[in-house]
Amino acid sequence: KYAMLHADKPGETNSGIPLENAERFMRAQMAGNLFCRGVIEPAYYYLGSDYRGGAGNSYTLTYMSQMGGWSVLDYALNFATNRAPYLRLGYQSFLSAWALMNTGTPESNYGYWYPGKENDGGAGGGFEPAPYGRTWLGQPHHRGSWYFASEIDLGYCGAMRTAATILADDPIFGRFCFGGDFRETSKEIEATPKDGLRRRFFAELNNGKFSLLLDNDRFAASRPISFAKDFSEIHFIIETDNPTKHSAKIRIGGLPPGNYTLRTAKNSAGEFSIQTGRTAEINLPMDAGANPTAFTVSKR
Fold first, then answer.
1. DSSP code string of the chain
2. Mean pLDDT of all residues in 25-29
3. How many whole angstroms separate alpha carbon 37 and alpha carbon 75?
4. Residue 100 near residue 145 (C-beta atoms within 8 A)
5. How far apart are CA 16 and CA 6, in angstroms?
6. pLDDT tens-digit series, residues 103-142
7. Which residues pair with 75 in a beta bridge?
């Protein structure tokens, strides 16, 4: 992605890397990513998982499942011409290694893999599909989650960078909301983020697209992001843990080019423009103690 963003377009000589070389490198990288990833098998410990030398016969759901899945989803959202299969696989990778979490309620005895309150919140470092084997530390093992964490924290760091709610039109499954719920009325669409972070929303529809990316604060829990079907108006609500007056930075991209206004429930909060292929960075005013705060973006 870095190479794609900094390579020389036709007529430029800034980086010394022609754009066509960066594109070829990206395609090779993505092919390598998919070659080492569960793409076909629908089992939860295969689909989206990183594959090692055992080709799925041992050590799946590794930390690279979600780290590598981050790039698959980013490729789907920013570069792919055939978007749908990469969206599915990228989100499957994001979800994959959460299966290793050992957590629950008192009624479930705090976890499936290793029950007991003392194990609540732990996570295994991988999954063994084989009925018998040995871990990397030489202990005997049976099918299931590892009983030490290994590098899974790195995978969860990748998952935090991947987390998003994505409303997309899929050629097989129709309109579907990854990481959230949605409903439609005659004039607008509502999508409720449930991806865990509630900082990134993408609409990738056949008739257009846009994205809302928060750098701080988050979209309000259980409150929908709604937008007109022609993308002329967007409504969203921001909540925060910061009790002081501050700004929530949001990046808005993909909307039809033109001039837009931003307003709260009380008054106007400014104007901005969208240029083709560019993202607008906007500071949303969050008053002290005002939580949550509703905003509307309208095309002029």
1. -HHHHHSBPTT--SSS-BHHHHHHHHHHHHHHHHHTB--S--STTTTT-B--TTTTSS-BS-HHHHHHHHHHHHHHHHT-SSHHHHHHHHHHHHHHGGGGEE---GGGTT-SSS-SGGGTTEE-S-EEEEEEEE-TTS-EEEEEE-SS-TTHHHHHHHHHHH--EEEEEETTTEEEEETEEEEE-SSEEEEEE-SSS--EEEEEETTEEEEEEESSSEEPTT--EEEETTSSEEEEEEE-S--SSEEEEEEEESSPSEEEEEEESSSEEEEEEE-TT-EEEEEEEE-TT--SEEEEEEE-
2. 96
3. 15
4. yes
5. 10
6. 999 999 999 999 999 999 999 999 999 898 888 888 888 8
7. none
Q: Which of 9, 13, 59 is nearest to 36 (CA)?
A: 59
| Distance, CA of 131 to CA of 23 (rounded, Å) | 42
Tokens of 91: 């989100």
Measured CA to CA in angstroms, residue 107 lies from 114, 118, 119, 123, 280 at distances of: 14, 15, 14, 19, 48
- Nearest C-alpha neighbor of 215 from the set 270, 287, 288, 286: 286
Q: Rounded to whole angstroms, how far apart are CA atoms 265 and 292?
A: 11
pLDDT digits (tens, 9 = 90+) for 209-242: 999 999 999 999 999 999 999 999 999 999 999 9
The C-alpha atoms of residue 240 and residue 123 are separated, in whole angstroms, by 29
pLDDT tens per residue, range 182-195: 999 989 999 999 99
Q: Residue 3, CB half-sphere, CA atoms under 13 Å: how many?
A: 14
Percent residues over pLDDT 70 in the chain: 100
Q: What is the average per-residue pLDDT within 66-83? A: 96
CA neighbor of 84 nearest in space, from 93, 75, 94 = 75
Give this prediction's pTM: 0.93
